[in-house]
Amino acid sequence: MFKKKIFKTIFKYAIPNVISMWIFTLYTMIDGVFISRFVGSTALAGVNLALPLINFIFQFL
C-alpha cells in the first residue's frame, strides 16, 4: 500500500514535466524549420549555438 502511494505521487509530478519537455522539444523543432526556410542556414546555425545557453537558463525557471 505504501509503495502504491509513492508510485502514484511520483507519476503525478513526473507527467507534467515530461509533457513540458515534449512541448519544448516540439517548439525547438518547429522554430528550426521556420528559421531554416525563411531566414537561412546561417541564422539556424546561430540559433543552434545559442540553444545550450537557452536550455541552461530554462532549467532554473
Automatic annotation (TrEMBL):
Places the protein is found: Cell membrane
Domain of life: Bacteria
Listed GO MF terms: antiporter activity; xenobiotic transmembrane transporter activity
Chief location: membrane
Entry keyword set: Cell membrane, Membrane, Transmembrane, Transmembrane helix
Keyword Membrane: yes
GO cellular component, one term: plasma membrane
InterPro entries named among the record's database cross-references: MATE_fam, MATE_MepA_subfamily
Pfam hit, one: MatE
Transmembrane feature ranges: 12-30, 36-58
Topological category with respect to the lipid bilayer: Multi-pass membrane protein
Protein name: Na+ driven multidrug efflux pump
Species assigned in the record: Fusobacterium animalis ATCC 51191
